[in-house]
Prior knowledge:
By secondary structure, the protein is an alpha/beta fold. Helix content is 46%, strand content 10%. It contains 20 helices and eleven strands. Strands 3, 4, 5, 6, 7, 8, 9, 10 and 11 form a nine-stranded parallel beta sheet that branches. Strands 1-2 form a two-stranded antiparallel sheet.
Amino acid sequence: MYDVKSMNADDFINHEEILESLEYAEQNKHNRELIEQILEKAKPKKTGRGVECAGLSHREASVLLACDIPEMNEKIYELAREIKQAFYGDRIVMFAPLYLSNYCVNKCVYCPYHMQNKEIPRKKLTQDEVRDEVIALQDMGHKRLAIESGEDPVNNPIEYILECINTIYSIKHKNGAIRRVNVNIAATTVENYRKLKEAGIGTYILFQETYHRESYEVLHPAGPKHNYCYHTEAMDRAMEGGIDDVGLGVLFGLDKYRYEFAGLLMHAEHLEAVHGVGPHTISVPRLRRASDIDPDVFDNGIDDDTFAKIVACIRIAVPYTGMIISTRESEECRAKVIGLGVSQISGGSRTSVGGYAGYSSEDRPHDTEQFDVSDQRTLDEVVKWLMDMGYIPSFCTACYREGRTGDRFMALCKVGQIQNCCHPNALLTLQEYLQDYASPETKKVGEALIDREIQNVPDPKRREKALDYLSRIRNGERDFRF
Ligand code: SAM
């Protein structure tokens, strides 16, 4: 039976509830009046505490996703843009993945790391190699990483992951530093989540892959990941272990996207209902070609327009949740979805174990790649491209370092302090990037952007302080934040 507060995966991601929601959405996809009402409910509203959004239930959001009235769809996109602007402005947070190990004991049929794949060489970074990778990433300008690993209790036990996190945080090369390490590793125990928390991680990310239990079990035929409930209840254990920033996601292409969408939002509702805080981020990866993996054998692939609609509807349904896309997506697709709700993107990514150190931007290793990277530009190219489109690339990691995790980040949104806090932080970290890593052309565009944008910090005292920090960064100091 559907119960948002149940700790049992089959109850909070209840199959019948999803089917009924999809049926309701199908019946109402032409119901203009209802769609208008749903959009009205989701609009940003001025309150005594600033601008607030109510969000939507999985049922309401499913109606928007199913809607096929062209002018209503335009309104959906407009609202997604408005919400994005209200809470994220033009800022886009930058990160890079760091692959630690591709040893894996699972048999996920869509993933090249599956244990039966004899085509890829297995590799695990030594601490010296982690160090080399981190130096290469710092030299690109990255401050925020997402570490990735296969699941293998012998080759990549939690102690190995913790050691890598320690190494990553310890490296200070020139002006570089990794200030936030997000972690994407397999579902684990409360005790291990507690250890990750103690190691100072940012977000714990775990993709559900699919919320459809039957498909899940077929797609994960063996290994610890086969256990649907253990996987689906992982975020509850992570929160019990003290991690309050968790990142959800599904791998689009595995099952029907409307089913996944409803499941994803039900998962977010469950976290909010039980722990008082929803997911910090939602990722929207799509299945890609990879070693031993042909995405065409999975017949639920979605086109770019459907993908954009999903992004817009997520933005409207969970306005305070960051949204992430990776270099699985092309430049063209990224441009489209950034405006509709995506707030974090990766740049200059390598999806192979040991893919950064010793390789130039043209010369990338393919043998251990997790999947084909669609956007192959360098970080500098991505930063310049974002600025040319009017966005502000941000290397900010301030919130979690200031203890603004979980609901405290949302409180910041609600009291309308974003423009006095996130906006200058984005500009300060962009200034650091320009100073230390940017090409002359990127630097020129960025300096002009910062001079212009700093004037948009509303509080005069904050603005003055930010201007002081900017000039100190230009004179060699680093790591200021609000
Ligand atoms: N091993 C960890 C786990 O079990 O959750 C996570 C690490 S894995 C490197 C990160 C994610 O890559 C997976 O959760 C999956 O969604 C995604 N992935 C796997 N195969 C893929 C493919 N062929 N194309 C795109 N993404 C893929």
